[in-house]
Specification:
With about 160 residues, the chain is an all-alpha fold. The chain is about 65% helix and about 0% strand. The chain contains seven helices and no strands. Helix 3 packs across helix 4 and helix 4 (about 70-80) runs antiparallel to helix 5. It is globular.
Length: about 160
């Protein structure tokens, strides 16, 4: 549609990959997206580290890359761990993601990075729309009724 008129062929293909949640590799020189990928990977690592330690597992086997040890991300994970349910924990993570995207756009006004960040924010919003759908409720209901063998439960 309209994006084709304003983006290069490479940027358009990149935007399609981004919006369809395909693996993305930033080769197009976008510092904003490089920072986003790094931030999100570090956040996922902190979550993996926290959860592995909580359940007495070796955190290193769950890391996607070397752990950065960012105290801000550690605090975000700590706040999320206090949430009363998993959805509220996800909201803590997504609020941090949203704030990161806002700060990453400083100095960008009418360039492709604004479009890329807009697409990432749409993905965050889309997740919540999907979580509130009737289909999501049906999936949740089917999972909550599954009986797990005792050997698979973590103490």
């Amino acid at each position: 549609g309209q994006c084709e008129r304003f983006l290069s062929k490479d940027d358009l293909q990149f935007m399609v990959r981004l919006l369809t949640r395909q693996e993305i590799k930033v080769k197009n020189g976008s510092d904003v997206l490089k920072k986003w990928i790094d931030f999100n990977a570090n956040l996922c690592n902190e979550v993996a580290w926290f959860r592995a330690r909580k359940y007495g597992r070796d955190p290193k086997e769950f890391l996607r890359k070397e752990r950065g040890g960012d105290s801000y991300l550690t605090e975000i994970v700590h706040q999320a761990s206090k949430a009363d349910d998993p959805l509220n924990a996800e909201k803590v993570f997504d609020t941090a993601r949203w704030q990161f995207l806002d700060s990453a756009l400083f100095g960008h006004y009418f360039d492709r990075d604004v479009l890329f960040v807009y697409g990432l924010k749409l993905q965050i919003l889309e997740r919540y729309q999907n979580m509130e759908s009737a289909q999501a409720q049906a999936v949740f209901d089917s999972y909550k009724n599954i009986s797990l063998p005792k050997s698979s439960l973590v103490n």
